[in-house]
Amino acid sequence: MSASATPGKCIYIVQYSPFTSFVHPSFWHTLTEMKLDVDKLEGTTKQIWGKFSNRDDMGAVFEVDGTSFNKEPEDDQLYTNVKGTLMNKNTMEEFKSIEKATFLSVVGKEIWATIQDKKIWITKPSSLLHFIIISFADLKKFNYYYWFGFPSPMQPTVYMKDKSLSITAIFSAKQIAELAQIYKALDREQKCFFAVTKENNMICVKTLSSILDINEGPLNNIDLSSMYFVFNDPSNVDNPGWPLRMYLAVLTDHCPSLLEADIKVIGLRSNATGNIESSRYFLVTAAMEDVKNKPCTVSDFWVGWEKNGKGSFGPRVAKMSASLDPVILADTASDLNIKLMKWRLVPDINVDVMKSTKCLLLGAGTLGCHVARDLLAWGFRHITFIDNGKVSYSNPTRQVLYNFQDCLSGGRDKAEAAADSLKNILPTAVSKGITAHIPMPGHPIGELLKEETISNIKIITEAIADHDVIFLLLDTREARWLPTLIAAHYGKIVINAALGFDSYLVMRHGIGDFDPDETTSVSTAWIAGGNLGCYFCNDVTAPGNSMKDRTLDQQCTVTRPGVAAIAGALAVEILVGLLQHPLRVNAPAVYNVNGDTEDVPPEFQGILGPIPHSIRGFLHSYQTVTPTCAKFKQCIACSEVVLNKYRQENIEFLLEVFNSGNYLEEVTGLHELHLAAEMTDILTFSDEDEE
Amino acid sequence: MSATKITIEEFLEAAKEFVKKSEKICDGWTLKLDKIDLCKTYIKKESFIQCQDNDTTNVYKIEYVIFYNLSYGVPSFSFNIWNSSGMLIALEDIRKMSFIQISQKDFYSVVTQQEHPIFQRPYFIVHPCHTETLLATFRNTSKNIIVTFLGLITPLIRLKLPLEFGL
User: Fold this and answer.
1) CB-CB: which of B88, B108, B115 is closest to A25?
2) Are A399 and A366 in contact (CB under 8 A)?
3) Which residues face A52 on adjacent strands?
4) Which of A81, A322, A364, B51 could disulfide-pair with A418, CB 3.0 to 4.6 Å?
5) Could you confirm whether domain B8-159 is CATH 3.30.1460?
C-alpha cells in the first residue's frame, strides 16, 4: 500500500494482491489434443474453467488443468471455480498482433454487459469473476506461449485509512466460528461474494439478493452501512485479493450511496481444516476519479494482465517438449535404462560416451542387424551402415531389422532399410545407409569397374575417417582386408565378428600405443592394447578368393541362427567394455582368463571387467575360449610395411592388391616365410554369413 | 508368495481407509480406482511447495502418487514436480531442492526417474527394494499399511503426514 500525501491523515490507495497463474501439465496436454483432433487449423475461442482457493498457506494462485476444458467444472470443496475464455491463436503473428490494452477493454465491456444484463450477479455472484488466456501453441516444438488476464474495472479508486486488521480485532471467537459455519453452509454460487451483519452479537448471513434491489440500490429497510461485505480472498498478505476490485466496482455502481462512504469488507481466508481466523478486515472508501483528466464510467477502463516471470507485462512460454513430445519421451525413457545401471549398479559408468561415439557397421546382414540393435540398447545414437545388397525374402527372419515389406519389388537397399528401421525403433537415432561394394584382394578390377571401385574406396575411406568405431560384419574374409587397413591407418577402434556354422569369432584389433620392443614370451601374462593383433595377424596367407571354391550351400547363410545373435551381442559388449575402461584402447588383454576374473590385476579390470582380445565360441559344445595374440610384424593388413606402402602409393597399391593377393605376400615377405616353412595345412576360419 | 508381501486386496483396503481419513481432515488425498485393472489403482495428492532459488521464492506443485507394485508386492511411492508453466523439473534440479532430505551420495540409489507403470510417463520413483523387509517389521503392529509406508518415506521426502492418520 502506498501512502498518499493527504495532510493530517494517512490514507492508502488499496493495492490488490494479483493472481499468479499456475498451469498443470495436463492443461497443455488437453489443449494439444483438442487442437490436433478438433480445432485443427482454426483459431478458436473456448469457454474454460479456472479455480482458486482462499487457503491461507499459499498466495493468490490461479490454476488451470486438464479438467478446465470440461463443460461443467470439477466439484472441489477447497476451490472456487471461475469461468474464463481461452483464445488460442493459430499463428505466432496473430498472437503477437493482439493489441493488449484494447483487447482487455473490449473483453471487459462484454463482461460488464453480461453481468449487468438482468443483474445476474445479484442472484449469482460467482458470475462476477472472469479470466482470459490468449495463447499460441507451437506444436512442432511443444512450446506454448500464453498470457493470463483477470479483467477488472480500473475505477473506482479505493482508499483505506488504516492498514487491514485481523478479523479477530472486530469479531469474537464465537462470531468467527459462526461465520465459518455460515460460509461452509452457503451455496457454491454465493460463497464468493455475500454480506453479513451483527445482530444481537450474532452473525447473520445476507446473500446479495436479500439486500440489493434488482434495479438499483439496496432493498427497502436495508442499511448498507451496517453490512460487512464478505469475499473469498485468495490473498495471504495484508493486501486484499484481486476479486475485491470487481466486487467494489459493482457494489458502488449499483448503490451510488456507497461511493465515498465507509465500506466494511471482510476478506475470508481459511486454512486446511476450515478455520477462518486468518481472515482480514478492511475499512475502505471508493471514489470515481477522472482518468486522463476526464470523468469516466466504471466500464471505460480495464486492467488485469498478469506480469510474466521477469516482472513485466508480457506473455510467458511453457516449453513442454520434455513431457509432451513423444520422440523426446522415447529418447529419455531409453536413456533411463542406462542411467538406472549407473544409479543402481555401476556408479562409475560413463553414460555420455555411448551417445557421442559414432559407429560404422560394414555389413547390414544378420550380424549387422544384431549389432545395431544392441548398440541402440546401450544408448548409442550414431550408427551408419555400409552394404551393397538388397533385402531378399530369406532375410527378415534372421536379419532382425527387416520385414516383409522391405523385400517387395526387388527389395530395398539393405543399408538404407536398416538405417530407416533404426529410426522406427528410436526416432532420435542418427542413422545413415551407404550402398557401396567393398573391393577385395584377389578380386581383379577390370577397366570397366575401375572408376566405380575408386569411388567406392573413397566413400569407404571417408566413412571410416568420419567414425570412431568400425565393426567388421562382412560375409567374407577378404572383404575385411581393406577396412582393416584403412582403420589401422586412421587409428580407429575395430571390432570384428565372423561366423561359422556353429562357431564364431569376435575380436578387437590392436590400436593405440604400439611398443615394438615388447616381446611376448611364455611367461608374459598379458598384452598391451596397442600390441594386440588384427584379424589377419594370425594368418600367414594373404586373403585370396574364398568364394572361388565354395559349394552352393556355402554361399548362403549356413549358420545356426543363435550364432549371429551371440556374436553380435559380444561384439557390442567388447566395445562398451573398451569405451568404459580407464585405459580405453590401450586396455591390455590377459592370457588365460578362466572364468575367475579376480586374478586379473585391478588396473586391467576396467569398469565392466577385463576385456579379452578375442572370443571364440563353439555352439556344438557350448564352450568359449578367449585367446590373446600379439601383432604380427609381417601382417598383410596392419603391419607398418603395408601401411607405409598404402600411405605412399594409395590407390595404385590397392589396385595392385585387388588384382593379386600374392602381391601382399611379396610386400610383407610372407612369400619367403612360406618357402622357409612349407606350411601347407593352414586353418582358416570359415565366416560365411549370407548368400 | 511370501508372508511378508502385501496383497492387492490389502493395498486397496488400506488405500480406501487412508483416503477416507484424509477427507475427514482435509489432507487432499484422492483415490483413483481402476475397476478393470485393480493394479492400476492409485492414490494421489497435489500440493504447492515453495523453494528458495537464489534470491527468489518460486512456487512449484508436487504430485505424490502411491501405487501398488505387483512384482515386489509392496506399495510404491512416486512423484513429479512442475513449475507455474507446467514444465516438469529435472532430476538434477530436484536433488538440490530442500524438500528432499537425502544426501547427494545416496540420492540416486533411493530416487530414480523411471517410466511410471501406470501413466507411462517419466516419474520419480522411490526404489521399492527395501520396502518389503521394512514393512514386514511393522506388519503386525500396523493399523494401516499405507500410513506405515508413508512413515518410511517422510524422513526422505518432506511430506506432511498429519498425526491424525496414526490415530
Assistant:
1) B88
2) yes
3) A62, A80
4) A364
5) yes
